[in-house]
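tool_log.txt
---
The assistant was asked to compare two proteins side by side. It first ran the structure predictor on the initial sequence, then on the second. Raw inputs and outputs are pasted verbatim so the downstream comparison step can read them without reformatting.
(1)
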Amino acid sequence: MNNLPKILVLDNVQENIQSLSEVLNGNGYEVFTSDNDQNFSEILESYKPDLILLDIMMSGFDDYEVYNKLKQNGNSNTPVILVIPEEKVNEVVSRNNGVDYITKPFRSAEILTRINTHLKVKAILEQKNALQKELQTLQRMTSITALAGGIAHNINNLMGAIVGYSDLLRSNLNGNPKSLDYTERILEASQRVTELTRNLLTYSRSVRNAPTRVKVKNLLEDIILLYGSNGAKRLSIDLHVPLDIPEIYVDRDQVCKALASIYINAEKSAPKDSIITIIASIGKVPLTLRPRRTEAESEEYVVLSITDMGSGIDEEIAQKLSDSFFSMDHVIESELELSAASGIVLKNKGFIHVQTKPDIGSTFHVYLPKAGDGKL
């Protein structure tokens, strides 16, 4: 994979293009050249340069027409360095205060220094924008978890009254079968609401209070034993935990709840006589999930992959779960449970990556921190 910085050279003098290309190619840059400004949008969209070198003497155009077009094409964050003749320096400075430039004839050291400086500034700005985005997401998560906790607390209080009065009603029905049936349905629905509010409270309160070393195989076997209910579906559980899988360092109770929610979702989704596969492995967090922290680039995690053969889940929901942020708008029961699981994994310094395909199934990859020598 080529990760060299991309430089777009816009000039209609072949001698200039060749000279700049030789300097840039010889110093670790990938170069793309064009002598025609008519297809800027296509060039910028397909090439996505990190920096643009623009000769303002493009024949047939006003000196600054091309520069203005570049900035108006949604590339305001892409650095543009003007290439100008010596005799036009004063004019450029007076007309475009703050616009950087290099002069012709070219000086290799000057070109490389200018480009290196702009690329460093661009990287800093991009990191700043990414951190601001993460902060905004964290603020939204904080607001939603607080809201979820408050709602759940109030609902639980109300459900306590509903369940209590339903029990009293059932004991005073004198054996009326239809009324007893209705009362049982009220109690069943009340229990489901209580379970949902418990998930909301888990989502809002799941702080990693008691991290400890946890054996992966024991944890997964406990989940299968406690929550496995194949019933009429006759599901098979295929568990693979290699002997060399290290312990994880998490709040065991919380992570058990999170994995149980994912496992229960897999059971619900799986068709009759199918297989749920659970595999433990070692891996690095995918690029799309990594936070802006260097340790996440090299650190290895224990990866627990739970795969079902169901109908899959909505792509948008899968993406939101992978983003460790889940909107409470229009959620259904299973979504809320998975949302709580995502929040727990995040607060235990882990990640979730969801892969799903309609009518084929879903795989939840849960990345959890390994227990190192210093984690006792």
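(2)
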Amino acid sequence: MRLRILSVGKPDRGRLAELFEDYVERVRRFTIEVEVSWVAEVRAGGKFSDAHVREREARALRAALPDRTRAIALSPEGQCLTSEQFAERLARWSTPSAAFLVGGPLGLDPALVRGADAVVSLSTMTLPHELARVVLAEQLYRAVTILKRVPYHK
């Protein structure tokens, strides 16, 4: 199982980053490869429209995706899954590898979302992208414990 968390914008180094790293390290303890990377955020406003910003960020995300990797877009419009459903899908998505795409302040480009292998909602509410990374990392850890039958998820 190989996982990648690919986000827009350089992550902050505050409390949310510490929590994110804690969950990523927990997943890695199960000998699961987790790569964390990011692409530059294009600043909104000024001379670029929101749509143009999302398109440029989408190009960068696509370029950062390794070959033979399933792209899982995170979007409030995506499918809401239980933790057990997410674990079952994670097992399929991550063979050979899966990349979870976390958008920046404007979200993901609609064309990128449509072209993804799957679209998942962490919440129907909008989450700041730093918080979305934490929720994703915790759910990845929870899914792995479900798959490995390790008590945590109850």
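---
observation on (2): The longest strand covers residues 69-79. Residues 2-148 form a domain with the Alpha/beta knot fold (CATH 3.40.1280.10).
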